[in-house]
Amino acid sequence: MPSMNITMNEPQISNKDTLPPVKAVGLISGGLDSILAARIVKDLGFDVYGVYFAMPWGCCDKTKAIEAAMSIGIKFIVLQLDERYLEIIRNPKHGYGSAINPCVDCRIHMFSRAAQYMRHIGGAFVFTGEVLGQRPMSQLRKSLVRIEQGAGLEGRLLRPLCAQLLEPTILEKEGVIDRSKLLRLSGRSRKEQFTLAQTFHLTAYNQPAGGCLLTDVNFSRRMKDTLEHGYRNFRETVALKWGRHFRISKEFKTILGRDEEENESLIRYAHIDDYIMQLPDQAGPTLLLKGHHPPEDALGVSAGLIQRFSRYKNEAPQNMVYWQVRNKEDRRSVTALSLTDQQLKDMSL
Ligand code: SF4
């Protein structure tokens, strides 16, 4: 078992007694590994700025991450991913993992932004909770090196949980960081992390469940479709995690809410050029239609989809009301086309 040199209440190695503590920027997902890494770096006497990357499709619970950061007394900053990140998903230099997850490029992007932030606040290094060999794509030794170089952090990217298994950073070489206080964890087992969590009395952290939606095959299919057919802004991709999605043609796509909450979310996140469609009594799914100037057949198919997922499923074609988000007063009506199971299957994303 790898040695774990961490004990609580050990005297902190300090960066020179009278000077303000050296600043370090850590990537904080709120998961156990990132919190352990932050706690170790903090106990070494550094002023820790935790950076959390907000991913609109959900990955790690932000509230839990804030709680975890507060529980160990570090600063917490949220950085939002944006269109640059979508371009990385579209065309990752280092390829995909099991689905549409571009893990190496994703990390390079996040670490580069953390590095920018480090320079902005006058910090000395960036750290993460990565463990050598824990993940197949991004935590192999060669990937760790590639990510460090890609992010422009050569010698300034510390992985406290497995540092003793890696090349020393500049800060370790210069004696600013005491390498003997760092760990040598590797592999997929989390046993030692849980032992450390107990030692540190850490209870507030994100559980590993859920994870990144980019690794989910269904979500990946929708994301791929969006990237292929175009999007107008990052916010638009938020709706990929809700509802039933159908591509009705190259130009038009619909999303139907599956419950009240999704119906409201679809309206809230709609683009100003999108169309909203509902049953006149709103007793069914709200539908979002994406695409410019939809012709009658696209509107009819959209209406048919609403009917299919409403209580009118087996009844005569119903009329639906629709409007463009930018012009809510101009309400129009369209009659549902009936759709076969095969059509539904072919359109489903
Ligand atoms: S799992 Fe998702 S968030 Fe994590 S590195 Fe891969 S793409 Fe990025």
In brief:
The protein is α/β, with parallel strands linked by helices. It is 33% helix and 16% strand.
Q: What is the top-level CATH class of the largest domain? A: Alpha Beta
Low-confidence stretches: 1-14
CATH homolog superfamily of the largest domain: HUPs
The end-to-end span amounts to: 46 Å
Number of strands: 11
Query: Globular, elongated, flat, extended or rod-shaped: what is the shape?
Result: elongated
Could you name the CATH topology of the largest domain?
A: Rossmann fold
Q: Return the CATH architecture of the largest domain.
A: 3-Layer(aba) Sandwich
- Indicate the structural class: alpha/beta
Tally of helical runs: 11
Give the strand order of the largest sheet, numbering strands 1, 2, ... along the chain. Answer: 6-7-9-8-10-11
Mean pLDDT score? 91
List the secondary-structure elements in sequence, H or E. EHEHEHHEHEHHHEEHEEHEEH
From the alpha carbons, calculate the radius of gyration and give it in angstroms. 25 Å
In this structure, how is the largest beta sheet organized? 6 strands, antiparallel
> Helical percent range?
25-40%
In this entry the ligands are:
iron/sulfur cluster
Strand proportion, as a percent range, falls in 15-25%
Kindly give the count of domains. 2
